[in-house]
Amino acid sequence: MITSLPQAIRKLSPRAQARNPVMFVVYIGAVITTLLAIWQPSWFAWAVTVWLWFTVVFANLAEAVAEGRGRAQADSLRKVKQDTTARRLDDKGATTEVPGSALRIGDLIVVEAGEVIAGDGDVVDGIATVDESAITGESAPVVRESGGDRSAVTGGTVVLSDRIVVKITTAPGETFVDRMIALVEGAARKKTPNEIALDILLTSLTIIFLLAVVAVGPMQQYAGQEPDPIKLIALLVCLIPTTIGALLSSIGIAGMDRLVQRNVLAMSGRAVEAAGDIDTLLMDKTGTITFGNRRATELLGAAGIDAVDLARVAYICSLADDTPEGRSIVELCVGDFAVEEIDPATLAAARAHQHPEYEAVPFTAETRMSGIDRHGREGTVEYRKGAADAVARWVVAGGGEVTASVLEQVERVSSGGATPLMVAVRGSVGADEGSVGAKTGSVGGKVGSVGGGGGGGGVPVVLGVIVLSDVVKPGMSERFAQLRAMGIKTVMVTGDNPLTAKAIAAEAGVDDFVAEATPEDKLALIRKEQSGGRLVAMTGDGTNDAPALAQADVGLAMNTGTSAAKEAGNMVDLDSDPTKLIDVVAIGKQLLITRGALTTFSLANDLAKYFAILPALFSSIYPQLDALNIMHLHSAQSAIVSAVIFNALVIVALIPLSLRGVRYRPAAASRLLGRNLMIYGIGGVITPFLGIWLIDLVVRLLPGMG
Ligand SMILES: Nc1ncnc2c1ncn2[C@@H]1O[C@H](COP(=O)(O)OP(=O)(O)OP(=O)(O)O)[C@@H](O)[C@H]1O
Ligand SMILES: [K+]
Ligand SMILES: [Mg+2]
What we know:
Layout: H1 5-10, H2 14-18, H3 21-39, H4 43-80, E1 85-89, E2 95-99, E3 108-112, E4 121-125, E5 127-131, H5 133-136, E6 142-145, E7 152-153, E8 158-161, E9 163-168, H6 176-185, H7 193-222, H8 229-239, H9 242-261, E10 264-266, H10 269-275, E11 280-283, H11 285-289, E12 295-301, H12 307-318, H13 324-337, H14 344-351, E13 358-361, E14 369-376, E15 379-387, H15 388-397, H16 404-415, E16 419-426, H17 434-439, H18 441-451, E17 461-469, H19 476-485, E18 489-493, H20 498-508, E19 512-514, H21 519-531, E20 536-540, H22 546-551, E21 554-558, H23 563-568, E22 571-573, H24 581-618, H25 636-660, H26 669-699
Parallel strand pairs: 11-18, 11-20, 18-19, 20-21, 21-22
Antiparallel strand pairs: 1-2, 1-3, 3-9, 4-7, 4-9, 5-6, 5-8, 10-22, 12-17, 13-14, 14-15, 15-16, 16-17
Magnesium ion (MG) is lined by residues 149, 284, 286-287, 541-542.
């Protein structure tokens, strides 16, 4: 607190004060009593004046201490922000060195092992391990790769191995680290709707008390006593809700800060508050509940087709597929099934969508398929792989059929929690179609005989299933059980098939799941929940999760995800742990509870101050009022000074609580409310009686206290 004092004094400017109506009244009161004390000095006048200024400074101190906690962190982040040079890639493939600050959105930069990534962006080519410890504090390197949901990189982090091409997605000055700095410093802080509502309530109370105190003067005059403006100002300050007025902003800052300590960046205080009231949590599967490095592990040929034949087709399906899944299929086919690769020039051209023969059909979350259209001499052959239901629909639409044995394979793979990709081909794969054609000749023969297709078109044929495996992150079910105890329903929403979804849902211990969901479905599901008056949190990592993340009341994006997801959400978890929402919810609840508790305390305090000050003001006129002086305070002056001192000290005493927060344990909301009303309501009534009585014992020894 001592180190934050200079900052607290600096906040004494009228402009800074005017932002807080309750404390502004105290500030104006202090200015007036100062002038009065200079004009007609007395021990009493100066005692009140000095303590009014203390009150203002203590309120500033609360905010300064809260902000100070983020400042050290901001300093270390600034070191990450040092300007680095970048190697910008032009259309011809040449690189030029430019300062990081000259990078624009859309620029491509090359980063190799040992180099610092100069700006935020998405990996568009290559795979690398990256040291993100400067931002996350986690020393283990992370994998960042193009094509999938682990593509976002953050400026200031260091590439440890390999080479990546990064497409810049944010302008200099608006990067993730810039936003983090603004956030931890509290510079980006705006009042939340809840805070504004409470502010309005406090301001109304202040106005009511102001009118009441203004009315006291004439009442005294009527009774034949000259009103003392200093006493009236002291009365006003004691009655208005200074405690909560002083601590309100530090409670909010501390909440954000607690999230930062847990490696969660909340872009708005509103999201933190919403987290405290969440009813439903939606999560995607891959990369959120599972690790997300889904890899091809097995090939299951359909009846009459052996795995090697399937591998040749799976290879062609995937040669231009830049997703991690696609690359892992190529690796499996080449590594385990010795499929011969096509020549690098053809490969590069196909991937760049520039080869006349191999036309890439990229994966989309809508079609849930990908593949190649191969334009040969005998017409076009369509190679497809994808979610079993999507490919099956494609096959049936083309007049083909999906045999029961393939469906059985799909079911078996799914029930085990893995993802089956069905592989199918339409069109004749002749032996005379060049090198790859020759390799797939044997399959072609079967396709030809089964499908009977010659030339372009023909009937699609299913060749088998690729098994994609992924692993559920450890400890999920315990954490979801905790969420259940907090009264939050967890729902997994995935683009994967219902059987895989069911298996993973059971393993992870979520309450419910929705499978085969498109991005629109995810968005619609959130809207539906919200229309029922429920607050919804969503965690996700993919570009296909972005609309849902934006719509959710709390959108927690995984740091490993794509830039689109991180942009869309209102929180980012640097540890990419979806169960972090438990902490986020607890912090949100704690914030709301703390604010409620201190408001209760602040208002309950008033009662004791009435008993201290009103007799002091009127007992010389109405001696009967002395019966109210139940604390047996020494004199009118000492009673007033003691009340003002108590009013100021209680702010300081509560700063630690406002920063730490009232403890939150999962329990029914009504029980919590009842308990807190007891503690802070009754405590708020009793404490000032004791406090003022004790302070008066000392104050009565001061000069000028009658
Ligand atoms: N490269 C790919 N080529 C073809 N099909 C794919 C590819 N990647 C995924 N799929 C299929 O598309 C489905 C949907 O994938 P997507 O990544 O969009 O899922 P999602 O909606 O993000 O859900 P989750 O991340 O929870 O799995 C996958 O379950 C899989 O069957
Ligand atoms: K007060
Ligand atoms: Mg996903």
